[in-house]
Amino acid sequence: MNKDNIKKYLILLLAFLFSSFASASAQKISAIRQWVQSSPDEYYSLLARFENGDKDIIKSDLAKLYYGFAFCKEYNGNFDMFSEMYDALKAGDKDKALEEAMKSRKQNPVCLELLYQIASLTFKSPEGVDNAYRVVAMMKVILDSGDGKSPQSAYKVIRTGDEYQILSIVYRMDSLLMQTA
Fold it and tell me: CA-based diameter of the chain, in Å?
């Protein structure tokens, strides 16, 4: 299955699940930070549920999961460009690319860029549905944070690359120049 078909599938899945996910704008970032810092065990328990493919995570918890990661010790912002994964993809070694993506995901579990690549690489496998769910869940959190039409209503992301993924997947702007490099 090519990337266009994967994108179409993800967009359809996103539309189908539209009402199932959190509105990030309803979440106060300071409240999320306080929750993560005061209840790290709860945050990591929620993260484990997400990583295990739990599709019953409630609306507000998906936003807590995404935005809360910015307050975890593992968070490294825009500094990881996943060069090993992309080198393997360029070389046509999908197994190595998936291996590198999975390694990177341990340090970036809510990174939309990684989640999308993992979903693309596992699309036809049994775990492909869980991986697609993770992409849609994080896309929905980001899309609910604004409309992207003005600085005041910009999408709120914890990595610039996540916004680029939204623009590429949802708005089909595939030729964006990465400004984070």
Answer: 44
